[in-house]
Amino acid sequence: SDTKPRASNLFDIVRHNKGKWNRKAYVIRSHGNNQIFDTAHYWPKEGAHLVQYDAHYGDNQLYHICPYPSV
After folding, report:
1. How far apart are the first and last CA of the chain?
2. Which range among 1-15, 29-43, 49-63 shows the weakest confidence by mean pLDDT?
């Protein structure tokens, strides 16, 4: 199978540096189209759908990254 990375599935995790979440949150930006992960319809619960969307840096596009607890 083809396991080479493609531009459409490579991402940068970038610290957000403006507003109330200055240096406390991150955006996840696609290399392929320069769009960022966006929680669809501002759904603030576990299981929300993520889409790629133009950056507006709303709360639904900012993410806290923390370690996953070991099982």
Report:
1. 31
2. 1-15
AA letter at 13 = I
Q: What is the dihedral of CA 65, 49, 47, 39, to 10 degrees?
A: 40
Closest by CA to 49, choosing from 38, 58, 59, 57, is 38
DSSP helix/strand/coil, 40: helix
Q: Note the pLDDT of residue 46.
A: 82
Of how many residues is the chain composed? Answer: 71
Residue for token pair 């996953």: 68
The CA distance from 4 to 53, in Å, is 24
